[in-house]
Amino acid sequence: MMSTSSRAFVDDLALSHLDAAYNLGRWLLGSEQDAADAVHDAYVRAARSSETYAGGNARAWWLAIVRNCCLARLALRNKEKRNVAIDDNPVAAEHWMPRAEADEIEERLDSSRRRQMITVHLRNLPEHFREVLILREIEELSYREIADVLQTPIGTVMSRLARGRALLQKALTDNGTMEIPHGL
């Protein structure tokens, strides 16, 4: 049975980082509904295991649970030999990217085009590079936090981040001489 303080801890944690969890789920699963389901699963899993939380970075602990729920869903998809429902419509996925504060129409169009290009190429990256880029560049987690989420050494995080950035940069430049924007 979960104590009131454990429930409050999980509730606060989930609510505080709900956007990050949902965003991670959308990028990993490619579906808003699946992301919502994975975040719900993560909440239930976190609530059940809150008594075993050993301290440390709570955000990383929460996102690791979300990631594991997403990976479980992906494994189930593969096991059932379903097609991965990746939304190939970059316009629909555009709202996942951080919004620019452009005032001019041309700037907005250019910004929209850039986001679409980044979204398309980011989706085409291998999963282990994509998830590191999302956690670092969009969710702004530290290297240590990413290592905690992925349960991998920090050197691996740094390597994947460098290789992911290089692959994204190459894809963007090959497709129209676009420079990778700072912070995506």
UniProtKB/TrEMBL annotation:
Domain RNA polymerase sigma-70 region: 15-75
Gene Ontology biological-process annotations: DNA-templated transcription initiation
Domain RNA polymerase sigma factor 70 region 4 type span(s) in chain numbering: 122-168
Entry keyword annotation includes Cytoplasm: no
Keywords of this entry: Sigma factor, Transcription, Transcription regulation
GO molecular function: DNA binding; sigma factor activity
Keyword Phosphoprotein: no
Homology family: Belongs to the sigma-70 factor family. ECF subfamily.
Protein name per UniProt: RNA polymerase subunit sigma
